């Protein structure tokens, strides 16, 4: 798991407003995709979570390695109790990954054996236009 997730003033303002709205829509879509994906992980369906992950994710983590790694982490943390959205930040460049459309989502989470955890989920827009998870970390 640990390997394993910003001319003319008016024209400038209009461009900024459009980009802001697009980022807001993208953030909402990415956050919804992350929630759906996390529900699959929470249900212990680790193979299905790999199937539903981004192409980038699948290129870098085999299904069997993912199932083993997330299973190990979830055995240590225990069952999911609560998850609260802390932040969701759009990004186009992140270290160690190709440029693209990403949203870095941070949750304050509580698990049975880890009552004060932080989950970071990073969906990306896949080439087909759908948001899918490219990274997941629990700390």
Tell me what the structure shows.
This protein is of the alpha+beta class. It has a single domain, classed as Nuclear Transport Factor 2, Chain: A (Roll), CATH 3.10.450.100. 44% of the residues lie in helices and 30% in strands. It contains 4 helices and 4 strands, in the order ααααββββ. The chain has helices at 9-42, 46-51, 55-60, 63-77; strands at 80-91, 102-111, 114-125, 131-138. Strands 1-2-3-4 form a 4-stranded antiparallel beta sheet. The longest helix is centred in the N-terminal third of the chain and has 34 residues, at 9-42. It starts with 8 loop residues before the first helix and ends with a strand.
Identify the notable features of this structure and list them briefly.
single chain, 139 residues, alpha+beta, Nuclear Transport Factor 2, Chain: A, 4 helices, 30% strand, globular, disordered N terminus
